[in-house]
Amino acid sequence: VQLQASGGGLVQAGGSLRLSCTASGSIFRFNAMGWYRQATGKQRELVARITTGGSTNYADSVKGRFTISRDSAKNTVYLQMNSLKLEDTAVYYCNVENTNSGRNYWGQGTQVTVSS
Fold first, then answer.
1. What residues are paired with 45 via a beta bridge?
2. Contacts of 97 (CB under 8 A, 6+ apart)
């Protein structure tokens, strides 16, 4: 499985960005797709996750501001990020999890920088 992410960049606080990630290769039927982030000096953390059934979960810090969605036909997951804050600055990683085996696959990371 290969993951290609795009959409990161520099934005002012209060602005919006949309991340996209497309998976290719041997895509399994039951999977969850999501986004994690890692800020400098901090551990990687879950931002948002969506299953094949459409169930979602979000980090408390992004609830009400970020929305995750997926196009299963395109094996693509999106993260719409609104009302961005300085503390959202991080490298964002796309993730696909085989929910049967628990194996995880990671994209290369895309930088999101929020400026004041």
1. 37
2. 31, 32, 33, 34, 103, 104, 105
Greatest extent of the chain over all pairs of C-alpha atoms, in Å: 43
Residues contacting 86, CB < 8 A, separation 6+: 13, 114, 115, 116
Task: Say if CB 8 and CB 21 are below 8 A apart.
Answer: no
**Cα(16)–Cα(32) distance, integer angstroms:** 24
- pLDDT by residue for the chain (116 residues), tens only, comes to 899 999 999 999 999 999 999 999 877 777 899 999 999 999 999 999 999 999 999 999 999 999 999 998 999 999 999 999 999 999 999 999 998 888 999 999 999 999 99
DSSP 93: E
